[in-house]
Amino acid sequence: MKKILLSLIFANLIGVLVLTAQSTSQGMNYQAVARDASGQIIANLPISLKISLVSKNGSQAEYFSETHQVQTDNNGLFKIIIGEGKDASGKLSEVPWSKDQVWLNIALDTKGGKNYNLVSSAKLLSVPYAFHAATASQIVEGATAIDLPIEKNQSIYWTTGGNTNTRPATHFMGTRDNQDVVFKTNNTTRVILTKGGQMQVKSGVSGADSDPASYPITVQGSRQGIYIMVNESRDNDNNFVTFADPNGIWGRIEGQTIPELEASSEYQTQVALFTLQAISLAAQVIAFGAEAIGLAASGLGAAAAVGAAANAIALGIEAASLATEWATWESDLKANIGVTYESGAGDYAEWLERKKDERDLHYGEIVGVQGGFVSLNTTGVDHYMVVSKRPIVLGNVPQPEKEQNFEKVAFMGQVPVKVVGAVAVGDYIIPSGNNDGLGVAIHPADMKLGDYAKIVGVAWQAAKEAPINYVNVAVGINTNDLTRKVDELNQKVESILAYLEGKAPLQTDGSVLNAAATAKPQTTFSKLYSDEEFDQMIDNNADFLTQMYAEAKVQLIKQGYDANKNPKMFEMLDNPLPFIKEVRRNPAYITQWAMVDQKIKSKK
Predict the structure, then answer these.
(1) Could you report how far apart the first and last alpha carbons of the chain are, in Å?
(2) What mean pLDDT comes out for the span 344-360?
């Protein structure tokens, strides 16, 4: 028996199959050229064909088969309509085009149609979907399969019942002509996928904020919520989330990078304060020097020298420990850098406008509020408040172009406050009085009458002795109105007692009010020594200071601390005296030096 081949003459090298349109019966036109094994055309001969539509997923399943008796022409060409053959098995209309990948098998016999030999087996690509379109629920309207162009390996239909055997790389819904994709419900645009890739959701839902159905987008069905990743840097020029209404942008969640952190005034101020904390050990140095001088005058100079040396080493180790704390603080701060909004915040704040010519304020600084404007001035103001770090609720948001003139000021809750010196839980925090943004802690038993009106809040966290601490303080406890009345009554009582004792005439109500407003004893924090007097004390203890800071440097090197990480600090350790004198004259640290002077005075 001759080996017979089918040479297919149309695209796909299989044949052309289309829906028949002449009758109500279903079928696919198929035409090909028959050739023998040597490639010679089989012309003008009768041949028998067996057509089968099968699946090759797992074990082969035959969905439909039939036979055809055809006559080739002079060119070996024959034509058939699949679906109109004889001895059919199965129904063409029941072939699962959308659920399975269908293969077309062609078997041929030139000896009467009893011994068929398989000569071709090819996977149908776009044709089965076009054929299936005659019966499937269709998304497109109007046109039939033969009216629409079909991209190779793609379908022009997505069925309402779902699709199978899809390949994401080639089977997709979308555009290829640089146009947007629009989704509608009830003939109203709901979602637009722009040609640039932006998704726009346009919803008409409305209702109570407690009803999930009131929101255009809901996310449900996972342990996690929404994951947001920006392609660019997380710096504060890029927002993770932006909040707006028709009048403009009103809020945002933004990130922060390490370079931005290091460039911020808060970071630079904190670094300077760590340096000052190391310098403040000079108070103990001077105190030990005073004790040594006293011992020497008593004839115990050798013992004093030994003790001074021991103290120098001890303080050097303490200075090294401080530097390690500094490094740990910096490392933790950079490791925990994140976005500017945190739900763990504990205060309610509002944006308040700074007074004209006032510098940018830092979180934790105590400010005075007068007429709704804030500044570092705390003399003769209406309220004493604190600049918030990251409030959980922030109101009175200004327009973006005006935000640089405003500060977040805590009204109620817990907020970190910059406090000089040691703090005990329950201490009152009041302004230092030096208009430097710093607070001081006063034990309730040590409060003076004039201090009560200045209460910023109550410390809910203890802190050790230091030039500056960030202390958790409860704010929003307003005692000013009550204390004004107490001051007035107290002044009246004092006036009456003075009159009864014959020491002073009885004051009128007006003079009592004036006295209550002006004659209040208050706690003050100012330098007890002039800068020149302090310089002399430093010079008198020069050897001791040099030894202490040299020991600190030794300890840091032993711990493997890299001097290149903070050259300014190592410069101070190598030559401490000029550095200390320079910082002594910095007006930003009056309150800290007041504390240093108090320590020196208490030791003398």
Answers:
(1) 126
(2) 86
* Residue 303 near residue 603 (C-beta atoms within 8 A): no
User: What is the number of structural domains in the chain?
Assistant: 5
What pLDDT was estimated at residue 300? 33
Q: Are residues 138 and 222 in the same domain?
A: no
**pTM of this prediction?**
0.44
461 shares a domain with 416: yes
Residue 304, SS3 per DSSP: helix
User: Is residue 217 domain-shared with residue 232, that is, in the same domain?
Assistant: no
E-strand ranges in 469-567 read 469-475
pLDDT mean over 346-366? 92
Length of the chain: 604
Examine the domain organization and report whether 193 and 239 are in the same domain: no
Q: Is residue 158 part of a domain?
A: no
> Distance between CA 428 and CA 446 in Å, rounded?
10
Q: Distance (Å, rounded) from C-alpha 317 to C-alpha 284? A: 14
Say yes or no: 141 and 12 in one domain.
yes
CA separation for the pair 360, 265 (Å, rounded): 9
Report yes or no on 56 lying in a domain.
yes
32 and 95 together in one domain: yes
Give CA angle at 407 (476, 330), nearest 5°.
95
Are residues 32 and 134 part of one domain?
Answer: yes
The CATH number for 412's domain is 2.40.300.10
Distances (CA, A) of 109 to 32, 49, 83: 15, 7, 19
> Measuring CA to CA, which residue among 218, 139, 133 is closest to residue 184?
139
- Best-predicted range by mean pLDDT (278-292, 345-359, 401-415, 547-561): 401-415
Domain residues for 425? Answer: 347-476
Q: Which of 147, 163, 182 is the last residue of a domain?
A: 147
41-87 confidence digits (pLDDT tens): 888 999 889 999 998 766 678 999 999 999 999 988 889 998 899 98
Please indicate, yes or no, if residue 589 is contained in any of the structural domains.
yes
Average pLDDT of the chain is: 74
Q: At what angle do helices 576-584 and 531-540 cross, to 10 degrees?
A: 160
Could you tell me which residue, 11 or 602, shows the higher pLDDT?
602
pLDDT (0 to 100) of residue 549: 77
| pLDDT 10s digits, 524-535 | 778 888 999 888
**How are beta strands 347-354 and 373-375 bridged, if at all?**
parallel
Any idea what the Cα angle at residue 90 is, between residues 88 and 94, rounded to 5°? Answer: 135
Do 275 and 568 meet the contact criterion of CB atoms below 8 Å apart? Answer: yes
Q: Is residue 382 part of a domain?
A: yes
Q: Cα 545 from chain centroid? A: 46
Bridge-based pairing of strands 439-442 and 428-431 is antiparallel
